[in-house]
Every structure is written in C-alpha cells, then in structure tokens.
UniProtKB/TrEMBL annotation:
NCBIfam families: pepN_strep_liv. Belongs to the peptidase M1 family. The keyword Metal-binding applies. This is Aminopeptidase N. The gene is pepN. Pfam families: ERAP1_C, Peptidase_M1, Peptidase_M1_N. It catalyses: Release of an N-terminal amino acid, Xaa-|-Yaa- from a peptide, amide or arylamide. Xaa is preferably Ala, but may be most amino acids including Pro (slow action). When a terminal hydrophobic residue is followed by a prolyl residue, the two may be released as an intact Xaa-Pro dipeptide. One of its GO terms (molecular function) is peptide binding.
Length: 810
C-alpha cells in the first residue's frame, strides 16, 4: 500500500488542533539477534479540541491500537484515523517493523568481521513513523522516554544518558529519562555489543561507541575526538550564550549508516569515518567539520527547530556555517575556509549556475519535497550566505543576536522571521533587503575588476538582475621576483552593478573576494588571468591561493579554461603549498581535472603532470599519504607499481591502491587480492577487494560492482567509493551499457529513504560513454518517473557531468 507524504497545510491544521504532552516508547530488540523484527509500543499523550478528528502517522505493521481505551481501525496509507478526540487523550499503538534490512527508519546490520548484530534508528525527515506511531512533523515537539529490552550482551544508547539497567527474562531492560521537548526526527535508539570509550571533560560525560571489530581504530582516535568535542561544546556554549544543557554527549559509529545524524545528545555516524589507516590531516579536517556540524544542530535544529521544512536551511545552512566558524576559531584547523573553498563551495558555485539552482528558502509543499533540498544550495551556499551575514552585521553583533534568539525560543519552533528579527534588533539594521536578495532569490553573482578613467571599479552582475547586497574584500598584489606581495586591501560594500574601489595602490593583480567573505564567483582581468593560470603559487597566503583556485575551477566548469590550464594552475600551487588540509583537496582536484575533464587524448600526459606534483609533496613531507595514493592512481606500468610497492611496505591502505591501479591497467591479481583481504583486519576489507575488481575493464567485474550497488548488497556508506572504482577513464566501451541501465534503475533509487536516494543517484550517474543528448534524456526520465529526492540529486550531478563533457570537447 502506498504511503502518503504529509502536506504543509495538513501539518498546520494538525498543529492547531493538538499539542503533544509526551511519548513513552517501549521497544523490544530481543528478536533482532536472529531475525528482522523491531517491536515497539508507542504511548502518546496529547491534548486536543473536544470532538475533533485527525490522524497519527504509522507506517509499521500495526498489531493493536487504542485511543482512550477504544480500539482503532487499521492504518491506511501510513495513517491511523483518530476521531471524537477528548481534551486529554492517550493513544497506544503496538507495531512491528519487519523490513530492517532495506526499509526506512530502522536498520539491522550484521558485521561481516564477526557476525555481531547492531541496530540503529535514523528518522530525518519523517521516518520515525516507520518505527512507531507518532505525529511526525517538526512543530509537534514533546519529551520522549524510552524503555528498551535488549539481549544481555548488548549496550543500548539513546538521547538521555545514565539509563537504569535491570536484568529481565531474555535480556536486560534499559530505562532512559525523558528527553526535553524534541521533534520526532531527533530521538534515537542504537544497540549492539559495542566497544565503548568514555571521558569526563569540562563537566560533560562524553561517550564514543563502535562495533567490536573497529575497537583499535576507535581507541587510536578517541583522544582527538574527545578534544574536538570539548572544544566545540565550549565554543558554541559561549557564542550562543547557552551551554549544552545535558551532561551526557554521546557519539556512535555505526555499520551500514549513511552520513551522520544530529540526534539530541547522541550523534550517529557512518563508521567509515573511522579510518582503518592512520587518518591524514585532510581526513581529520573532514571529521572535524562533520563533528562540529552535528554538534551545532544541538542548538540550531534540536533546541530551536524550524516550524516546517521550508526553513530546513535554518537547520542545515546554519550547522554548516557554524562548523567552519568553530573549526577556525576553536580547533587546530585554522585553514578551514581555504579547505572549504577548494571543496564544498565549488559544488555550490556550480549548482547555483545550473538547473539545480533554487532560492535557499523556498516553498516545500510536502515532506517528500523536503528530501529534495538536502543539496549544495541548502548546505554550502547557505553556509556561505550566513558567513556573509556575519560580516555584514559584524561578528560581535551576530553573537548577541543569536544568543537572544536561543534564549527566547529554546525548546520551541521558529520561522525565518524570528531569526531575522533577533539579528535586526541586535544590529539596528533593516535586514529585509538582505533577506530577499540572499534567501529568496536564486543564482550566484559574478564579480570582476575593471580599470577605468574614474579608477578601479568593482563590477557585479546578478544572475537575475541586480547583485546581492554584500561586503567583499579586494586585495592588491605586486610582483616581487617569483612572489606576489600584498600591497593593500580594502572592504567594499556592493550596492549596485559598479562600485568604485578606493584606497588601493597600483598593482599587478587585484584579487576579488581575497578574504572569502562572500558567496560570488569572480573573474580576473586579462593580466590577472595570466597570473592565476601561470603562476598562482606566487600568492603569499594559503587563503589567497585557495581563492585563486576556486576561480580557476569555476572557469574550467564554464568552458573558459581547459583541463590542461587547470591542471597547470593546481600543480603550480602544490609546488609551494604546505597546509595539508588545502594541499590534499587541491591534489584531488588536479587529478579529477586530468581524468574527468580532459580530452582522452590529453589524459595520460596530464596524469603524469599530477604525478610530478605528488612526487614533490612526498619529497617535501607534505600530505605524504595522499600523495602516495595519487601516485598509485596515476601509475603507468610495472616499474611505477614496483616502486610504489617498495614505498608502501606494510601499509595496507597503499597496497590496496596499488592493486586497484593494477586492475585498472588490465591485470587483476586474484591471488594478491585474496591474500591482502585475509591479512587486512578491517571487517570491510571485502569492499576494498570489490573496488579492485570494479576498476578493471572486465565486463564481469563491472557487472558484479553494479549489482552490489543497485541490489543494495554493498552498504550505502561505500557507494561513492565503489562507484569511483567503477567509473574509470579509458573504459568507455565496457561502461557504455550502464547508461541505459542507470535510466532503468532511476524509479527505484529512492527506496529505503532519503540517504540511499541522494547517494545512489549521484554515485551511479555515468561519467563516461555519454553525451549531452543522453544527459537531457536522463533528466526527462527522472522528471517523469523518479521521486523528488532522486530528481534533485540527478539534476545537480548531471550538471557537473554535462560540464565535464563540454570541457572535454575544447
């Protein structure tokens, strides 16, 4: 039976009709050791208008349901009708969720390393209804109390710390104190025979959990994770004028989980983030960003929650902005802005120039539509816009406004008006023009520099008319031998298409947005273009070089530069860059440009150029592990591979990369793959072995990898890695059939929820053996046959690939 998606007008009507007092949820996990059944009894107490009618959401199989002691009819389309309501009501619904392998909301994972079973829930945006009966909308917040019966060997973790644990027949019962008022997507229950590490830091009880086969990785990284967690809690508590209000703060690393989720007091992660090798500096940067992003949600999303999904950006954009703000100010990762410039911000610039562009805030008619805006506009563009807002009003003023916002609205729901009102009161500025321009208008501005009779002029062209109101830095750089010295900088408040820039001396290069204070693409003048592509390594700071590389990449994606020019610019920067959190993504972008954006006739030569840059990094001791991986990914024959094997020694991670490149060159050493898999203690080493086979130009290997993804036998957290091995350059003939097979799969990619829909749609999208006509056809098929989340993900990914196709033709 189809399940209905909640419409906004239904949510408004239901919120006006009732108020939820509490959820008491009893869960039985004892059947999950040997079977799939997740059983729950949800007791919901709520007040309502006397005699009114509504419905409760429930997509699990209903075993019994009563309202004020009266049996209820069966659920229909994921809803149970509630009629003749009293002023005070008690709803009791017993359910079972039997599809805990590929279903929504609840997942049972079996560790291939030791066959232990782990259970987790994840509910954003409206998947709590697949686990138990609830009023599944963000503005019906209520305390949640959990009582969980689990096998005796299992540990159960939920939002509240310090559970009472008692032995019962068949296992143990874990009783958790009620949470503060939470939206239905914030509660969580995870369980299994976890390994656990705990620390008390600054008055907080911090916990880390992972499956037993990852104990060594968890223990290796625990101190760093505790340090980052304590730094984040202190930073946000001070900046928001509200310390995190619960003593316990747990983080659980889970098998077969996609991404990370900000459940109040108990953040859940894909355990692929626990690197099986010693993490590189760039990997720690990513870890830090995710940790602080989910932590920021404790305030922006959990304590204060958007009323409806049209303000999803209030949750996600704010958390994305705040994680970078905190990383730069409170942790060792002071170059986070530069890292973001050569990472997620590039995706946002590209998305905002194509068909996936949309206003940051837009109407969301149904929750299904909400799934479609977890994208590069909502996340990195939204984050950049909030950073611009902080610069626009001033950081101290911004903090005053945010503290007032949290103080006034804690444990409630808000809209954009509430946030803007707090910041207007703090700043004394009318922010309505800023709000309209930045949040309700799609598209990215293009900023440039001109030399005119009236002096230096900053030009600004909006995507649909006037540019956004914004402040932007302009730096002036003058040649000094092989270097470019900064000889001046100013901040310009843009208020139209042309703004005279005053206070800068004569210079050889004027770099617009040199301090990354706004969200806008930039273009140099003719002399500046020559420098950005010819000698960007001369720029004196990591941030300035990152700004330059963002411009280079945007010009590449708009066919204003060739792949060869882009590779030349990135490898030139790598000749001087020592900040590993920037060197690593720049190295990856250089290789991506060579392998995915270049014509096939130029690919091998550009790969060799990237390899030279990687060898320099190895010799310089900068990002050595990433550089060695790049050398493996660009090796051209037995001599290269043999040298790398000697360099790798006992490093299992590098040995996998070497085997994968060997397979890509046409030689799958089955015995070596089997032997390495047996030696590797990683419980997911079978995925590395699958990637080796997937890299080969063998039709049988491609079929194996494709089926692992489409049939969901590979965990969703591995989809990007496997797909990266599958879509390899120079293999167009063997990959050609999968363009049609992708179109055939589109109607099913959303099955299992939002994360599979987003991940599989983007990962499986063909990179080679397609043309512009096929991309257009894919968009048409998706629009006609696919779920909104698939359409959104395909639109964004297809635009990136379409630009690759066009650039290959230059």
């Amino acid at each position: 039976m189809p399940v209905r998606s909640l419409r906004q007008e239904e949510a408004v009507e239901r919120a006006a009709l009732l108020s939820v007092t509490s959820y008491d949820i009893a869960i039985d996990l004892t059947g999950l050791v040997d079977g799939p059944a997740f059983r729950a009894v949800s007791t919901v107490r709520f007040t309502s208008t006397v005699g009114s009618s509504t419905f409760v959401d429930c997509c699990a199989e209903v075993e019994s349901a009563t309202l004020n002691g009266t049996p209820l009819p069966a659920a229909y389309e994921g809803r149970i009708a509630l009629t003749d309501l009293a002023e005070e009501n008690e709803l009791v619904v017993a359910t079972v969720q039997s599809d805990t392998t590929h279903g929504r909301g609840v997942h049972r994972a079996v560790d291939p390393g030791d066959d232990n079973v782990y259970l987790w829930t994840s509910f954003e945006p409206d998947e709590a209804r697949y686990a138990w009966a609830c009023f599944d909308q963000p503005d019906l917040k209520a305390p949640h109390a959990f009582t969980v019966t689990a096998p005796a060997a299992w540990t159960v973790v939920s939002n509240s710390g310090d559970p009472v644990v008692a032995d019962v027949e068949g296992g143990r019962r874990w009783t958790f104190e009620p949470t503060p008022p939470l939206s239905t997507y914030n509660p969580v229950v995870v369980a299994g025979p976890f390994v656990e590490v705990r620390r008390e830091v600054d008055g907080y009880e911090l916990g880390l959990y992972a499956r037993q086969t990852l104990a060594s990785a968890l223990e290796r990284d625990a101190e760093q994770v505790f340090t980052l967690t304590a730094q984040g809690l202190a930073f946000f508590g001070e900046r928001f004028g509200m310390p995190f209000p619960q003593r316990s703060y747990d983080q659980v690393f889970l098998p077969e989980f996609g991404g990370a989720m900000e459940n109040y007091g108990c953040v859940t992660w894909a355990d692929s983030i626990l690197r099986r090798h010693e993490p590189t500096t760039g990997e720690w940067q990513l870890f830090t960003n995710v940790l602080l992003h989910e932590m920021a949600h404790m305030w922006f999303g959990n304590i204060v929650t958007m009323r409806w999904w049209d303000d999803l950006w209030l949750n996600e954009a704010f958390a994305e902005f705040a994680c970078m703000w905190a990383a730069e100010r409170a942790t060792a990762y002071g170059d986070t802005a530069a890292n973001n410039l050569v990472g997620d911000k590039l995706n946002a610039y590209l998305a905002d120039q194509g068909p996936s562009s949309h206003p940051i805030r837009q109407p969301v008619p149904t929750v299904a539509d909400a799934e479609s805006i977890f994208d590069s506009i909502t996340y990195p563009k939204g984050a950049a816009v909030l950073k611009q807002l902080m610069h626009f009003v001033g950081e101290d003023t911004f903090c005053v406004g945010m503290s007032a916002y949290f103080a006034e609205h804690a444990w409630g729901n808000t809209t954009l008006d509430d946030l803007v009102g707090s910041l207007e009161q703090a700043s004394g500025r009318d922010l309505q023009p800023w709000r309209t321009a930045w949040l309700e208008t799609a598209g990215v501005d293009r900023l440039g520099i001109e030399h005119t009779d009236e002096g230096l002029v900053l030009t600004a062209v909006g995507a649909h008319g006037a540019p956004h109101p914004q402040v932007v830095g302009v730096g002036a750089y003058r040649r000094a031998g092989e270097s470019l010295e900064e000889v001046g900088s100013v901040v310009v408040e843009v208020d139209g298409a042309r703004t005279v820039v005053e206070g800068l001396p004569e210079a050889d290069l004027y770099l617009v947005n040199h301090d990354d204070t706004t969200f806008a693409t930039t273009r140099p003048d003719a002399a500046g273009r020559e420098m950005l592509f010819g000698h960007p390594s001369g720029l004196p700071t990591t941030l300035a070089r990152a700004v330059a590389m963002a411009t280079v990449w945007d010009m590449l994606s708009n066919t204003e530069a060739t792949a060869a020019e882009a590779v030349g610019a990135f490898t030139d920067v790598l000749s001087v860059e020592t900040v590993e959190t920037v060197a690593e993504p720049c190295l990856d972008l250089a290789l991506t440009a060579a392998q995915r954006w270049a014509p096939e006739s130029e690919r091998v030569g550009l790969e060799a150029q990237v390899a030279v840059a990687a060898r320099h990094l190895v010799a310089a001791g900068v990002s050595r592990q990433s550089a060695l991986r790049t050398l493996a990914r660009t090796a051209v024959g037995d001599d290269d591979l043999a040298a790398l094997r000697e360099e790798a020694g006992d490093d299992l991670d590098l040995q996998w990369y070497i085997l994968q490149r060997r397979a890509e060159l046409g030689d799958v050493d089955t015995d070596a793959v089997r032997a390495l898999q047996e030696r590797d203690p990683d419980p997911d080493a079978w995925i590395r072995a699958l990637c080796v086979r997937a890299s080969s130009p063998s039709p049988e290997a491609k079929e194996e990898a494709w089926k692992a993804l489409v049939d969901r036998t590979a965990p969703i957290q591995a989809a990007g890695t496997i797909a990266g091995a599958f879509w390899r350059p120079g293999q167009a003939e063997v990959l050609a059939p999968y363009a049609e097979r992708y179109l055939d799969a589109l109607p099913t990619l959303h099955e299992g929820g939002m994360i599979p829909g987003l991940t599989l749609t983007a990962s499986l999208f063909p990179v080679y053996a397609i043309d512009e006509a096929w991309v257009g056809r894919a968009r048409e098929v998706a629009a006609a046959e696919a779920a909104p989340v698939v359409v959104s993900s395909l639109t964004e990914r297809s635009e990136a690939v379409l630009r690759m196709v066009r650039t290959r033709a230059l």
